[in-house]
């Protein structure tokens, strides 16, 4: 078996960190222009509003995998609609 690459090690470390991190609860997702507005409840009870343009947005790592998947799907749909609208405007 070969040794893992640095990239593979970093991915494994991020996955382990996400597994240990307390999970936030996704409350609401809605499009607003070119971003998604995501509201979530943190484990300590605070409410957080994120403006999400990509899945690299800080704070998303606290959500469960299925919630991040919902946001990724929303971003994909939103970007497709924006792209289709630009095609029709030309």
Describe the structure.
- It is a single chain.
- This protein is α+β, with helices and mostly antiparallel strands and 90 residues long.
- 44% of the residues lie in helices and 23% in strands.
- The chain contains two helices and three strands.
- It has helices at 6-20, 65-89; strands at residues 25-32, 35-41, 47-52.
- It has a three-stranded antiparallel β-sheet with strand order 1-2-3, covered by helices on one side.
- The radius of gyration is 16 Å and the shape is flat.
- The model has no long low-confidence stretch (mean pLDDT 87).
Category by helix and strand content? alpha+beta
Task: Determine the number of helices (DSSP H or I, runs of at least 4 residues).
Answer: 2
Instruction: Give helix % range.
Output: 40-55%
Order of helices and strands: HEEEH
Strand coverage percent: 15-25%
Order of neighbouring strands in the sheet with most strands: 1-2-3
Overall strand count: 3
User: Tell me, what's the shape?
Assistant: flat
User: Major sheet, described briefly?
Assistant: 3 strands, antiparallel
Distance between the termini: 54 Å
Q: Low-confidence parts lasting 5 or more residues at pLDDT below 50? A: none
Average pLDDT metric: 87
State Rg: 16 Å
